[in-house]
Amino acid sequence: MPCPLPPGATxxxxxxxxxxxxxxxxxxPAGVTLVSNGPALTVGxxxxxxxxxxxxxxxxxxxxxxxxxxxGWAQISATGGGELLCLAPARRHWxxxxxxxxxxxxxxxxxxxxxxxxxxxxxxx
Length: 125
Fold this sequence. Notes:
Elements: E1 11-18, E2 23-28, E3 33-36, E4 41-49, E5 52-60, E6 65-67, E7 72-78, E8 82-89, H1 94-118
Antiparallel strand pairs: 1-8, 2-7, 3-6, 3-8, 4-5, 4-7
C-alpha cells in the first residue's frame, strides 16, 4: 500500500518495467516511494557511514512499498520481471517558495527594527 500524500499535494509518477533477470541502476531523489507490481524485486542502495560502505537491500513483493529517506544511486533487480512505480513528491511552485522567503525576510526586518527600539538607540527625524 503506497504512502498517502498530504492534502493538496501532487506527485510525479514514473513506471519502470523490468524483464526477468534484469538489473537497473538509477539515481532516485530523497522522499521517493517505490511500489512493486512484480513478484520479487530487490532494491539495494549503498551509503557511507563512519568511513565504511554499508550496502542495504530490501526485497519488495507484489504490492509492497518502500520510502527512500535519502537520495542516491539505487540498484533494482527483478528475478521474475515486473514493474516498479516511483512516486516522487512534486516540488513546490516557485511562487510559493518566493512568498515564503518574502515572509521570512519581513519577519527578520521587523525583529531587527524592534531590537533597535529596545536597545535605547534614539530615532533621528
